[in-house]
Amino acid sequence: MPGIILNQGERITFSRLGTKYEGDRNAPLYNKTYSGNSLNMIFLKNHRLPTDIDPANFIGRGASFNWSETYNIMPVVEYNTYFIQEQVIGLQELGRGGLDTFEILHIGDNLPSVKTLAFESEITALEVVGEDHPQHGTVLNAFYGCLVTQQSGSFNPTALAQRSFSISYRYRLPGKDYKALVPSSNYPGNVKPGIPLDV
User: Fold this and answer.
1) Which of 106, 121, 182, 197 is least surrounded by CB atoms within 10 angstroms?
2) Is residue 3 part of a domain?
3) What's the domain count of the chain?
4) Number of neighbouring beta carbons within 10 Å of residue 178
5) Residue 41 lies inside a defined structural domain of this protein
6) pLDDT tens per residue, range 34-63
7) pTM higher than 0.85 for the full model?
8) Cα-Cα-Cα-Cα dihedral of 49, 126, 161, 121, to 10°?
9) At residue 4, what are phi and psi to the nearest 5 degrees?
10) 84 in any annotated domain
11) Are 46 and 121 in contact (CB under 8 A)?
């Protein structure tokens, strides 16, 4: 996948500028829904270890992915009132994600173990449209500063052996922001960067 931008663990700052989608907002491609089987996850370590197996995508197969993020909202509580007068927006807390995959040697060997924990780097994860879809390669979400926080496995005699793991991430860029960051990436229309957010 060309033009992937990795975060190398540096401190992240954002300008007070947004991005604007300049394509046709009513076009079918911009309003199309996706089935889960048409999507793919790409996980890339920002700094590879000598023991890592796959430099391209260390989790090559999966069954499901989920993510969530929470924003710190602080209520202003003061005397002489019976309800919240104001809400102050604070920071975004660490985002969370989870992936269910299969018990495959290739995957298990790429995930952290007690021997590699001190050497693991952050991961960049891309939620993209898969290869068999007309919009293949389109990035829906890009997750930066990911770390594996938990993993588990299970099996029983009548089902596939499973491997699951959880991640935390520092921040997420939606598709249009990733397009602005990587102009060569696939997207239904052009994205204009540098839009002031102040009103």
Assistant:
1) 197
2) no
3) 1
4) 25
5) yes
6) 999 999 999 988 777 776 666 567 787 899
7) yes
8) 20
9) -70, 130
10) yes
11) yes
* 146, HSE (Cβ side, Cα atoms, 13 Å): 29
Token pair of 43 as six digits: 């996980």
- DSSP E strand stretches across 8-70: 17-21, 39-45, 64-68
What is the CATH classification number for the domain harbouring 191? Answer: 2.30.110
- pLDDT tens for each residue of 123-174: 999 999 998 888 999 999 999 999 999 999 999 999 999 999 999 999 999 9
* Within-domain flag for 2: no
- Amino acid found at 179: K
| Spatial contact of 66 and 97, defined as CB atoms under 8 Å apart | yes
Sole residue written with tokens 């890339």: 44
Assign 3-state DSSP to the chain and report helix, strand, coil percentages, each to 5.
Answer: 10, 40, 50
Which amino acid is located at 108 in the chain? G
Nearest to 167 by CA among 94, 71, 98, 64: 98
Q: Could you tell me if 135 and 45 are in contact, meaning their C-beta atoms sit under 8 angstroms apart? A: no
For 29, which DSSP code?
A: H
Here the tokens at position 129 are 């449209």
- Region of 8 (left: φ > 0; alpha: ψ -120 to 50; beta: rest) is alpha
The three-class DSSP label of residue 180 is helix
Containing domain of residue 120, as a range?
17-196
Residue among 89, 148, 100, 94 nearest 122 (CA): 148
